[in-house]
C-alpha cells in the first residue's frame, strides 16, 4: 500500500543520511527519532484505520529504523568511551577517580545526544546505558575484570 511505500522511502532516506555521514546527519537522525514515535502512535492508537499486515509491516520498518538510528548515534559515543572501557579490565578500575572519569565521560557524551524530543532522547539514553552495561559484562565474562578480593567480585 501507499503507507508501506512511504515507510520504505523514509527508511531509504534515513539509510542515505547515515551513509553520507555529513555534519547535518546527526541532527536529521535525532529529528527522525521523534517522527518514529509519532508514526508509532498513529499506527497503534488508530489501528482500526489499517489492516493488521500494514500495521505490522510499518511497525517493523519503524523498529528497524529506530535501531539503526540508535546504532548510528551511539557509535561515536562508544568510540569516545573506548579508552574508559579499556580501564575496566585493570585491577584498579574501582579506584574512585577512574570510575568517576567514566561517569563524567558518559555525562559529557550524553550532552551531545540531546536534540530529539524528550521521550526519544530517554529511549536513546536507555539504549546507551544498556550497551555500556553489556560492554562491562562482556569484559567481566572474558575475565578481563578481576578484583583482588574475590568476594567483592
Automatic annotation (TrEMBL):
Q: Name one GO cellular component term.
A: exocyst
Write out the GO biological process terms: exocyst localization; exocytosis
MF-aspect GO terms: SNARE binding
The name this protein carries in UniProt is: Tumor necrosis factor alpha-induced protein 2
